[in-house]
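Project standup — Tuesday

K.O.: blocked on the structure for the chain from last sprint. Re-posting the sequence here as requested.
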Amino acid sequence: MRSVKDCEEYLLNIPKFKKKTLLSDTKKFYELLGFPGKDIPKIHVAGTNGKGSTCFYTSRILKEHGIKTGLFTSPHLVSMKERFVFDKEMISDEEFVTVFEKVKSGIETLDDNEKEILHPSFFEFLFLMFMEWMSMKKADAIVLETGLGGMLDATNIFEKPDVCVICSIGLDHTKELGDTIESIAKQKAGIIKENVPLVYWDNGKAVNDILEKTAKKKHSPAYRIEEKNISDFVCDEKHIAFSFNNGYDKLKFVRDLSVNLPTSALYQRINSSLALTASKVFLKEEFDCDKAAKALKEGYFHGRFEEVERGFFVDGAHNEDAVGKLLESVGSIKGKKVIIFGACKDKDYAGMLDLVSKSHYFDKIILTNINSERAVDSKTMKECMTDAENVYVTDSLSEAIDLSKTYDAAVYIAGSLYLVGEAVSIFKTGDN
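H.V.: unblocked you, prediction finished:
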């Protein structure tokens, strides 16, 4: 019998022999597996930033209402198993191998020509494993995060999800999705389905117009959440709290819902508000404000402004929009600060570093290399900075962490989820 490590090795090698799969091919392979989990109610979430947190909060709210809920998110930080959660528990080793074998057995029924066309990509394979798992667990509901974009994403194979959610939209993955905010918005809008309610964040007129036009064309009720729905906002180094009013009488939403989140990430006001509204739309009259508030008070999404060791925070911000939101949170906290920054070469690392430098929030900026083929060299990053004062270059994250400890300051690690995963592993094993 295979081990989890064996399964992961196979999955990681898929890109080496797999051609790009069309969404129609994903549907065909899903049919070959027997449509596992097809009839389970679903909440489908897309967006550039915040979709993982929104999914997490939504799943917690549904669970608190007694609904057996599956959660599929990406990417993982340390283990692929992190992408698979049911009722707040990560998939076991045995179950991971079992659902891997189920999908793999479907591949074995294909001839060589069919394998070349229909073999799932890395992400699709994991998504299909998740659907097999949800069928096994007899889930009451599923919360699905898109992998990339929306329109052509593997998770977009379902004709009738129960709710669609679109979070903050910004410039990222421009090679695949287009280099304008409008082109990216159109890709995200691809998850909007006929007569399926849409919950979305106020992303400005250009994006809002695209989402609203698509929703109207699809006869989908649209609920926009914006800053005016959030009031009485307070924060400290461990929590944020606010009152939420969604403003839609049709939802019969209780006004002034008090929200308390165990995080100092200011941007989570956006994601938790989207989760509250999506949950209300999904649950309808069964939605209970007290249960929702309790669910939000007790959980936080790993890798998002998370304190992994006293004075060390990791955040998965890896594009300008997300870095801007990170800096908003950093700016609200007093005291000396250091940032350790590493990025992938296909990201706008120059733009992100420009925001970091111009914020003047950090006494030291430490650039480092990610342990990945996609990493941009730390020396290259320094060369693109116009103001290199108090900027230091290191060859590895461990070296960067050691250097940061020589300063009496809070340390923030950001720029890439790969870097965050590496940091989590270092602190978890005590190799720092």
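K.O.: great, moving the ticket to review. The longest strand covers residues 230-235. Residues 194 and 218 are 4 Å apart (CA to CA).
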